[in-house]
Amino acid sequence: MVVFPDIAPVLLPADGRFGCGPSKVRPDQLQALFTPLLMGTSHRAAPVRHVVASFKDGLRSLLSVPEGYEIVLGNGGASAFWDVACACLIDSRAAFGSWGAFGAKFALEAERAPHLRTPLVDEAEAGSLVTLAPRDASEGVDAYAYPHNETSTGVASPVYRVDAPGALTLVDGTSIAGAAPVDLTRVDAYYFSLQKALGSDGGLWVAVLSPAAIERARRIEAAPQGRWIPQFLSLSAAIDNSRKDQTLNTPAVATIIMAQRQVAWLNERGGMDAVAAHCAQASSLIYDWATAHPALSPFVTEEAWRSPVTATIEINADVKATDLAAHLRAHEIVDIGAYRGVGANQLRIGTWPSVEISDVEALLECIDYCLEQVL
After folding, report:
1. If you average pLDDT over every residue of the chain, what do you get?
2. Among 151, 211, 274, 295, which has the highest number of CB atoms less than 10 A from its own CB?
3. Are strands 94-98 and 346-350 parallel, antiparallel or unpaired?
4. How far apart are CA 173 and CA 163, in angstroms?
């Protein structure tokens, strides 16, 4: 059994949170929860609605949301939005790009939906990706869906529109929204949760919707003798409430407050250009270190596909990544284990906007120190 050495406090990162979701929450975000008349008050009253409005305005600036697109909030996380999309955005059949857990989960939801035709799924091995192409009109595909960043594998895809007449393009931005630039004119729904780059907590989904997506939802939900859509999954209800700066049901108010504070902070530090540069620098430190290390290698071999926010690394030696991660956790370096079932012997490190470059450097020094003592 490998016995790792103790790590001197002087070597440790100032903050040891490197998880890929939930991610590091900054003290400033937690302090915002003490603002009077927010926590413990009605989400339909002015103080909370003002926070929602500020959050939406901040996102519109950070993500460069196009004119005519709307920012919509709903109860539940991104997994709830998959059900919303199956109910309100996929008319008959969808085609999916799947190269990890999250793309596969959305496709499975569509496969199980009794009112939809069996989805078409283009798959790639974990660590790779596929690019969706328009299907033949006879196949009846009216929506194309793929992840921008696959949280489970650390693969980032270019964002593109599938050029198929009348079809919507749905992109899962959960683990990269707010950390990398995206041309939203190329998509109809760019949806995400708030516990990744936005350093908040779970309980809500956010979607940037094109006019075409809004029209599709309205049409499906208004169809006479149409499908049954639970109110909780009604995209029209979410749109109508979001226009009032609220959600259908009582939201996780703390999640909204922390997300609003994070978006404001990201804009204050220079907006998307500065944030993307920070994440790219942090992740590049890890990829370059792993490439140069005799016992390590980046899991994603194609450089253009490597995520700027979820760096996955394989240990190519007789050292169990799970044991190393447990040892580091004992020293308050947490959540760097692999996603279940991905990779042979893997670490996965979150390099979010809130993660300091100096902490990434310290983390790599700690891993080096541990490996040097046992290899």
Report:
1. 96
2. 151
3. unpaired
4. 20
φ, ψ at 25 (rounded to 5°): -105, 130
Q: Give all domains of the chain, ordered by start, each with its CATH number.
A: 16-24+271-374 (3.90.1150.10), 27-267 (3.40.640.10)
Q: Report the C-alpha gap between 139 and 99 in whole angstroms.
A: 22
Residues 330-356, mean pLDDT to the nearest whole number: 92
DSSP state at residue 17 = B
What pLDDT sits at residue 2? 83
- The DSSP secondary structure of 209-234, one letter per residue, reads E-HHHHHHHHHHHH-TT-----GGG-
Amino acid at 11: L
Residue 9, by phi and psi: left (phi above 0), alpha (psi -120 to 50) or beta? alpha
Q: What does the pLDDT read at residue 225? A: 81
In whole angstroms, what is the distance from residue 100 CA to residue 156 CA? 11
Cα dist from 155 to 8, 86, 291, 305, whole Å? 34, 24, 17, 5
Which residue from 290, 305, 259 is spatially nearest to 126, judged by alpha carbons? 305
Contact yes or no for 96/130 (Cβ under 8 A): no
Residue 237's φ and ψ, nearest 5 degrees, are -65, -40
| Single-letter amino acid code for the residue at 55 | F
How would you label 4-39 residue by residue, b for 16+ Cβ within 10 Å and e otherwise?
A: beebeeeebbebbbbbbbbbbbbeebeebeeeeebe
pTM: 0.96
Residue pair 353/278 in contact (Cβ under 8 Å)? The answer is: yes
Residue 372 CB contacts under 8 Å (≥ 6 apart), including other chains:
none
In this structure, what token pair is assigned to residue 63? 């993500």
List, for residues 103-153, the tens digit of each pLDDT value: 999 999 999 999 999 999 999 999 999 999 999 999 999 999 999 999 999
- Token representation of residue 257: 């407050």
Q: Which two tokens stand for residue 9?
A: 């406090």
Categorize the per-residue pLDDT at 342 as very low, low, confident or very high, splitting at 50, 70 and 90: confident
Helix (H) or strand (E) holding 328: helix 321-330
